[in-house]
Amino acid sequence: MSISRRTARSVRFLGVASASAALALGVAGNAFACNISEFSAVAKCDGEKGVISVTDKDPSGTPATVTVYLGDKVIGSEDVVGTREGVTVDFSEDWAPNTTYRVHVKAGNQVDEYVKPDVTTPGDACKTEPTPTPTPPASETPEPSEPATPTPSASEPEESATPTPSADESTPGAPASSVPTPAGGSSNLAETGASSNTGVIAGIAAALVAVGGGAVFLGMRRRGASSNS
């Protein structure tokens, strides 16, 4: 039985179409499969804290487990479902400058390997930049206030209104006394007791007492004689 040309052409066309479809499905399958190249990682700062950020841009949305290592120490592990735009997970880590971290990805049976290249932290640690102090405009600059009158301190003696003469300054016009004043007594009494007229006065007083006594005696005798007669 012979095959006509028309039939042969039809079979050939179906074979080519089938091969093209298989190739297209293979390419599409590879395009939507999860791949390690769709994962990236970087070390950065979130304020004063350090973080390791891992981004999954797997358009197939294959669930994956991301684990961050520092040497053999596990820093953290998170599950992530990627998208074409990318989904990022952050691992808090107080990293030191110039330190290398490894990021491992496990996504079903498709991916089980480390992200390349490894993550190396920046040369400067995370820190907060100081906030600059705003400088006030010239119009708002306060004018300097007048200095206050200084108050004399308690340790400084106040000046007396009337100067006090010193002990060695004598009052003008007053003669200096050359006669020392006796202790405990008045100068007038001392001068009276020391006068040279004391004896004369005492004699006159005694004579007056005697005369007075004689007059009294004579008067008493006259009164007795008058009464007897």
Describe the structure.
The chain is an alpha+beta fold and 229 residues long. The protein has a domain at 36-120: Sandwich (Immunoglobulin-like). Helices cover 29% and strands 23% of the residues. It has helices at 5-32, 187-193, 198-228, and strands at 39-46, 49-56, 63-70, 73-81, 87-92, 100-107, 111-114, 119-120. Strands 3, 4, 6, 7 and 8 form a 5-stranded antiparallel beta sheet that branches. The longest helix is centred in the C-terminal third of the chain and has 31 residues, at 198-228. The chain starts with a helix and ends with a helix.
Features:
single chain, 229 residues, alpha+beta, five-stranded antiparallel β-sheet, 8 strands, 23% strand
The CATH fourth-level homologous superfamily of the domain at 36-120: Immunoglobulins
Main beta-sheet strand count, sense and barrel state: 5 strands, antiparallel
CATH class of the domain at 36-120: Mainly Beta
**Helix tally?**
3
The end-to-end span amounts to 235 Å
Mean pLDDT: 74
Q: Helix coverage percent of residues?
A: 25-40%
Gross morphology is: rod-shaped
